[in-house]
Design brief:
The complex is a heterodimer.
Chain A lengths: L10 E2 L2 E4 L3 H12 L4 E4 L53 H5 L9 H14 L10 E7 L2 E6 L2 E5 L1 E4 L5 E2 L11 E2 L13 E5 L3 H10 L5 E6 L5 H4 L5 H12 L5 E14 L2 E8 L5 E6 L1 E4 L3 E2 L5 H4 L3 E2 L4 E2 L13 E3 L22 H20 L6 E2 L3 H11 L1 H5 L4 E8 L2 E9 H6 L5 E8 L5 E9 L2 E6 L11 H11 L1
Helix pairs in contact in A: 1-8, 4-6, 9-12
Chain B lengths: L2 H6 L9 H10 L1 E5 L4 E3 L8 E6 L2 E5 L2 E6 L4 E2 L1 H6 L6 E4 L3 E6 L1 H10 L1 H21 L2
The chains are: A alpha/beta, B alpha+beta.
Chain lengths: 490, 136
């Protein structure tokens, strides 16, 4: 392609977004809706990000139910479709379910990639493909991104690069192991003894993938598998099959809680020396292959050198509730790396920011935040005619609240007897910022896993929390709820 | 330094073996707060137990700092153990890195690791004594 045809030449922009996976596409779409001048850069040649390559075993672990009790394309339907990007135009909504062959209620990698490509094409999201971000610096309050095409200056940079760089734990000898990303030929493990380091998503995914081939499989890592939580999660399709073989008596499949002291070569085989974490003792294994399923890190380039603070052994940027680096002003993250903002984490609950269903809403909120911060533009406030039904409807069916439980809330302000929809904000921001009298609706989860709709009322700067009774069908539009909420807001 | 190595340097975890520390570090998330961010919120349910790995925080009541917390200190245990909402805010005064243990996991951890429970009880007893000494 001739250079003159490519959009977003080097220069000054309000915002530069880096990455053309789901996080970058959604962010660019949302910024454009708000009229924020920005460039979208990608080193890839086409949209799709990690879904052009992963998951290795081709099946996602995130849910999309093509037919649901609500109409496909409605706002409520987003709760049944965790993989499509979100938009206002009907032709851009719910693109992934339309492409699914329904072998599962989880799309395949190819279906997901096609859904993202369709979104980029129909929404006419422009990106400067083949442009690689190389380094970063500050010039006054401007950020300067050096790229393979030249210099981009901006007031805010949004990095939407996924969490896609293979990461290896600091285990002596782990260099003998193949990484998860190199395991795409399961036949290679036929008749072999395999030790998988790691018991999270990729560990169990690869274990499941080679289960029909390997002679024996051991999965080992320090943290016990939380089977009670997994059984209720969309991850179960990856986790529970290898675990089930182990639980039935371990006919060659073992799932153990250990730290790995070292891995060493013994002739043609590898010896893995381990120590129990939830039990006392040591175990040694001699295997043909070791696979490092120790996860991924965000591609942070030179940002740590600029002072970027991270969590999880340097893998994920530590972020404020609006996804700005806690240490580098103007540096924001979208997409999977937005998990670096944990939110208030009530009862330990985390946000769903590491998958599309959650970070698509983060992008909407981030775009609005940038519009306010860069242009001083307040959100458009729609009047709310009937407050109680509005709040109950949000608590019953707002997909943003149901996906980003305890992280995002819907705020309604009160002034002179009238009410205004202030949109979505991170719950931490509502709870910790001063502001006018207002109510915030949030869907939360209690200690036993029961879903609890929660309202917060801010009056004279003081915040009170009101939990509604759980309902077996999660319907909060009945008379008792109406009375309860009416009492909260009166 | 890894989280497990940091934990190993803190008094609360002094009796645990390296592999026990690894298990704790891998089973719980760490969280980082910018200076000025609230970590624990007075009057709100569902607070967690926090151990400071790096940085400092202040216990605040009505916006007034009552007590400084530093590396190795912990907070949130009273509400995590009683199930009642915290009676004070905890606000980061510098960049603050914490290990976060939700209430149900704290209970399980203390029962699994009685040495940890004893350490915590001793530290709690010292806090109680100094609180009583301050009272007129």
């Amino acid at each position: 392609m001739a250079a003159v045809e490519r959009p977003f030449p080097p220069g000054d922009y309000d915002v530069v977004v880096v990455g053309s996976g789901p996080g970058g596409l959604q962010t660019s779409y949302c910024l454009r809706r708000l009229g924020i001048r920005h460039a979208l850069l990608s080193r890839d040649e086409r949209p799709g990000g990690m879904f052009q390559r992963y998951p290795i075993f081709q099946r996602l672990i995130t849910w999309t139910k093509p037919d649901a009790p609500v109409e496909r394309g409605s706002r409520e339907y987003e709760w049944y479709d965790h993989n499509s990007l979100v938009a206002d135009e009907p032709e851009l909504k719910a693109l992934v379910p339309a492409l699914m062959d329904r072998a599962y209620d989880l799309p395949s990698r190819a279906e997901m990639e096609a859904g993202l490509a369709a979104f980029a094409e129909r929404a006419q999201i422009e990106a400067r493909y083949g442009c690689t971000w190389e380094s970063t610096r500050y010039d006054g309050d401007q950020l300067v991104l050096e790229t393979s095409d030249g210099e981009y200056r901006c007031r805010a940079a949004v990095f939407a690069l996924g969490v896609t760089v293979p990461w290896r734990a600091a285990v002596p000898g782990l260099e003998h192991a193949a990484h998860y990303v190199d395991t795409h030929v399961p036949e290679r493990y036929a008749g072999r003894d395999v030790f998988v380091v790691g018991k999270r998503n990729s560990g169990f995914e690869v274990a499941q993938g080679i289960l029909p081939w390997a002679r024996s499989i051991v999965l080992g890592s320090p943290r016990p598998v939380q089977t009670d939580a997994l059984a209720l999660s969309a991850l179960r399709i990856r986790y529970l099959h290898p675990y089930d073989e182990y639980a039935r008596g371990g006919p060659g499949t073992y799932v153990i809680d250990v730290t790995i002291d070292r891995i060493e070569r013994v002739d043609e085989r590898l010896r893995v020396v381990t120590q129990g974490t939830t039990w006392d003792g040591t175990l040694e294994f001699e295997v043909d292959d070791v696979i490092a399923a120790t996860g991924f890190q965000a591609p942070l380039q030179d940002l740590p050198g600029l002072g970027l603070v991270t969590v999880a052994d340097g893998r994920i940027p530590a972020l404020t509730p609006f996804w700005e680096s806690v240490s580098l002003p103007g540096v924001y993250f979208a997409g999977n790396a937005s998990q670096g903002a944990r939110g208030i984490g009530k009862r330990g609950a985390g946000a769903s920011s590491s998958s599309v269903n959650g970070f698509r809403y983060n992008a909407q909120v981030l775009a609005q935040h940038l519009a306010e911060r860069l242009d001083g533009r307040e959100p458009r406030r729609e009047p709310v005619a009937e407050l109680v039904p509005f709040l109950l409807r949000e608590l019953t069916s707002a997909p943003e609240l149901w996906v980003q439980k305890g992280y995002l809330c819907r705020v309604v302000s009160a002034a002179d007897g009238a009410h205004f929809d202030e949109g979505l904000v991170p719950l931490a921001s509502f709870l910790d910022s001063p502001g006018p009298d207002a109510f915030a609706a949030s869907v939360e989860v209690d200690e036993s896993g029961t879903i609890v709709p929660t309202l917060y009322a801010r009056r004279g700067g003081e915040i009170r929390e009101h939990q509604l009774e759980p309902h077996p069908l999660h319907r909060y539009d009945g008379e008792s709820y109406r009375k309860h909420v009416a009492a909260v807001v009166s | 330094m890894s989280i497990a190595e940091t934990l190993g340097q803190l008094a609360l975890f002094a009796d645990l073996t390296p592999s026990q520390l690894e298990a704790i570090a891998h089973s719980h998330e760490e969280d980082v707060f910018a200076a000025g961010e609230r970590v624990l919120r007075r009057g709100l349910s569902g607070g967690n137990f926090y151990v400071i790995l790096e940085g400092e925080a202040a216990v605040e009541i009505g916006g007034e700092a009552r007590h400084q917390l530093m590396r190795g200190d912990f907070f949130g245990e009273i509400s995590a153990l009683t199930g009642e909402a915290p009676t004070a805010d905890v606000v980061a005064t510098t960049m603050l890195r914490c290990l976060v243990i939700p209430a149900p996991q704290l209970e399980r951890l203390l029962l699994d690791r009685p040495q940890l429970m004893l350490r915590m009880l001793r530290m709690e007893a010292r806090r109680l004594r100094s609180t009583l000494e301050w009272q007129p």
